[in-house]
Design goal:
Blueprint: E1 14-18, E2 24-25, E3 41-45, H1 54-62, E4 86-87, H2 92-98, E5 102-103, E6 107-112, H3 118-129, E7 135-139, H4 144-153, E8 161-165, H5 169-179, E9 183-187, H6 204-221, E10 224-230, H7 242-246, E11 249-254, E12 261-269, E13 277-283, E14 286-289, E15 308-315, E16 318-330, E17 338-341, H8 345-359, E18 366-372, H9 384-396, E19 404-406, E20 409-410, E21 416-417, H10 422-431, E22 436-440, E23 449-450, E24 453-458, H11 461-467
Parallel strand pairs: 6-10, 6-11, 7-8, 7-9, 9-10, 15-19, 17-18, 19-22, 22-24
Antiparallel strand pairs: 1-2, 1-3, 4-5, 11-12, 12-13, 13-14, 15-16, 16-18, 20-21, 23-24
Bound molecules: thymidine-5'-diphosphate and magnesium ion.
């Protein structure tokens, strides 16, 4: 939506970009017509006042900043495909989330709350990769002494790691050029600014333009770039959402305050699976990998408690045991509360309606709180059945059977629908010593057993509730 002035056909020097959805508008307006949010538009300068070639204009809009070749139509089968070359970060869980290592020339945004461990993780990665990929750690938040001090304390190999305390993007690229790093970490993108704009550092236009410069640099030189981004209260990267469109991968670093476990999740990845999880523990020597994370998401004792149901979720490419908890309690409010932590709130409301209609269990006068243990978020529908079993268990104040797991989607007409990779989930549960599984019929093996675990196949919500 970059406007062209009607008379000259020359491009406007400015546009307005929405901080929420990243859409561009030719003039300022109170509400973004694309996402409907108010007061989210801010002005950005489009530096090219000279008429641009159409290809370049296109690249500006999409944030893609590669070199523009003359357009040439090619049969897709004739295009030479090169395996994108990857470099291991020497941190297995990090490699997993990246899709099997860091791709040369890729730009990866790592978002997360302040203090979650973004700088720690990237400093570790830069140091461990320095042998194969000379790195430049650009710090805009901490002094060089702080960065070096942390590296020493973490016992990292510092050979080949360079650091730069600088926030002006022009000067960063100017200094980087002669050194020719193969990896740049920009910590954080919110501190960077460009001389071409007058807006304050941290503003939407500065963040966006600085990121665009780095993306362009990455694509032109084949340098891999990590951008560190802080997350706002709403959960997005502070500044424009548009960053998410500009980069190749967006990883979020999550974790409960008070818990030492951290989950790195791929939210977008052009080079790998989304929703892939990497699990870390923050220790006194920095972030340590947790290669077998199932255990940590189950609450300590495996004694059955009312209001708890263990499920096998499949995030990315591996199954993971997590515990879903519910607390159902009489509500003093005329409009009882429904609170979901770690899963979607609207889905909770919908499932409670299904529970009433097709399970004959009414919770209309009860507050319902649900939580996924360990600060992890479950985004797949396989959580439906375990969630309702946990709710029922809390309402009746009776534990589900000892060592019981469940998974399955619940449809609006009360049917239990299959979920992908049922067999793999069942095997994972059996490996962890579970004795009984309540699962959708289509996910259950004919024999009714998986590695000694009893598998109960259910077709309707009512059946499932009965077995529970
Ligand atoms: P940091 O990487 O600075 O977070 P971010 O860059 O995301 O803001 O991590 C800071 C927190 O991590 C801080 O609260 C202390 C903790 N920490 C440890 O517990 N052990 C360590 O070895 C390090 C380096 C940090
Ligand atoms: Mg930091």
């Amino acid at each position: 939506m970059i406007g062209k002035s009607a008379k000259s056909g020359a491009r406007r020097a400015t546009a307005y970009v929405c901080a929420e959805c990243g859409s561009e508008h030719s003039k300022w307006q109170g509400q973004c017509t694309d996402c409907g949010r108010w007061n989210t538009l801010s002005e950005i300068a489009l530096e090219a006042a000279v008429p641009e070639k159409s290809g370049v204009a296109q690249s500006r809009r999409s944030g893609w900043a590669g070199k523009v070749d003359p357009p040439a139509i090619t049969a897709l089968k004739d295009v030479t495909v090169s395996e994108e070359s990857r470099e291991t970060t020497h941190i297995g869980e990090f490699d997993r989330v990246l899709g099997g290592g860091l791709v040369h020339g890729s730009v990866v945004l790592v978002g997360g709350d302040p203090g979650i461990g973004k700088s720690t993780l990237l400093l570790q990665a830069v140091a461990l990769m320095a042998q194969s990929l000379p790195g430049l750690y650009v710090t805009g938040e901490e002094s060089l002494a702080q960065v070096a001090g942390r590296a020493v304390r973490l016992g990292l190999p510092l050979e080949g790691v360079h650091a730069l305390a600088e926030t002006c993007i022009e000067r960063i690229l100017e200094q980087a050029a002669p050194m020719g790093p193969r990896l740049i970490v920009a910590d954080s993108i919110q501190t960077l600014w460009t001389e071409t704009l007058t807006a304050a550092p941290g503003s939407v236009s500065q963040v966006r333009e600085s990121a665009a410069r780095l993306v362009r640099y990455a694509k032109e030189t084949g340098t891999a770039v990590f951008l560190v981004g802080h997350v706002t209260k709403e959960g997005g990267i502070a500044g424009p959402r548009v960053l998410e469109h500009m980069v190749d991968a967006v990883l979020y670093f999550e974790g409960e305050s008070g818990s030492r476990f951290r989950v790195l999740r791929a939210f977008k990845n052009r080079f790998g699976a989304v929703n892939e999880l990497g699990v870390f523990a923050m220790a006194d020597k920095g972030l340590r990998e947790v290669p077998n994370p199932s255990a940590i998401f189950l609450s300590g004792s495996r004694e059955a408690q009312p209001g708890s149901c263990v499920m096998v979720t499949r995030e990315g490419t591996r199954p993971l045991m997590v515990e879903v908890q519910a607390l159902v309690d009489h509500s003093p409010l005329s409009n009882p509360r429904r609170v979901a932590v770690g899963m979607e709130g609207n889905r909770l409301a919908m499932l409670l309606a299904v529970l009433h209609r097709h399970g004959g269990v009414a919770v209309g006068d009860q507050d319902v709180f649900v939580n996924v243990v360990g600060g992890i978020r479950v985004q797949e529908t396989a959580v439906d059945l375990p969630l309702l079993l946990a709710v029922l268990s809390s309402l009746r104040d009776r534990p589900l059977g000892e060592m019981t797991v469940a998974f399955g989607e619940v449809g609006l007409s009360g049917e239990i629908r299959p979920v992908p990779n049922g067999e793999e989930r069942l095997k994972e549960a059996a490996t962890h010593g579970f004795k009984r599984a309540i699962v959708p019929k289509a996910n259950a093996p004919k024999s009714g057993k998986v590695a000694g675990m009893e598998v109960i196949a259910v077709e309707r919500l009512a059946d499932a509730l009965e077995h529970a």
